[in-house]
Amino acid sequence: MFRLIARRQYRRVWQAMNAHDYDAIIRRFAPDFRVTFHGDTSLGGTRTTRAAMAAWFDRLFRLLPDAEFELRQLAVDGPPWNTRIAGLFTLTATTPLGEPYRNVFVQFVRLRFGRICWYEVHEDSLRWSRLCQHLGSNGVTEAVAPPILDAVSA
């Protein structure tokens, strides 16, 4: 039963992402969370504070203003104190230059009693890096800005 509830909550969080309501996600974080987006790009790095996560989401939606996330596969396992989730996604968006963008990624999540304590995102980082370089060379400087980090992970 708990896995069914976790699945439903996870899908709701991604519905919020599609509405660009990242506050709904930040509210789900445990007090001691850790979020890592792999890759050496403006979105890369690890964050452990809500302020850094809000800044990260702001940047994401400036770089991909109409980002839409399609959850293609979902796996949930574990007890309430150590729930593990894996989601496979397709991301479609339009860049600030008006060009289409598409990528795939996997998100691994760990919940503790329904609160997000850890997640990592693994994507086609070469595709994202190439987009960031293209955007940067066309005047979108935030695409090539240093990652948003916080004092704990810097």
Strand content: 35-45%
**CATH top level assignment:** Alpha Beta
What letter string, H or E per element, gives the SSE order?
HHEEHEEEEH
- The number of E-state strands comes to 6
Assign an overall shape. Answer: globular
Determine the fraction of residues in helical runs and give it as a percent range.
25-40%
Average pLDDT number = 94
Strand order of the largest sheet: 2-1-6-5-4-3
Tell me the span between the first and last alpha carbons.
39 Å
Write down the domain tally. Answer: 1
CATH architecture: Roll
Low-confidence stretches: none
Radius of gyration over C-alpha positions, nearest whole angstrom:
15 Å
Helix-strand makeup class: alpha+beta
The CATH topology assignment is Nuclear Transport Factor 2, Chain: A
Counted by DSSP, the helix tally is: 4
Largest sheet: 6 strands, mixed
Write the layout of secondary structure elements.
Layout: H1 2-18, H2 23-26, E1 29-37, E2 45-47, H3 50-63, E3 68-77, E4 83-94, E5 100-112, E6 115-123, H4 125-137
Parallel strand pairs: 1-6
Antiparallel strand pairs: 1-2, 3-4, 4-5, 5-6
InterPro entries: NTF2-like_dom_sf (IPR032710), SnoaL-like (IPR037401)
Organism: Actinocatenispora sera
Domain SnoaL-like: 11-117
Q: In words, what does this structure look like?
A:
- There is one protein chain.
- This protein has 154 residues and is α+β, with helices and mostly antiparallel strands.
- The chain has a single domain (2-144), classed as Roll (Nuclear Transport Factor 2, Chain: A), CATH 3.10.450.50.
- The protein contains 4 helices and 6 strands.
- Strand 4 and strand 5 (100-112) form a beta hairpin.
- It is globular and about 50 Å long.
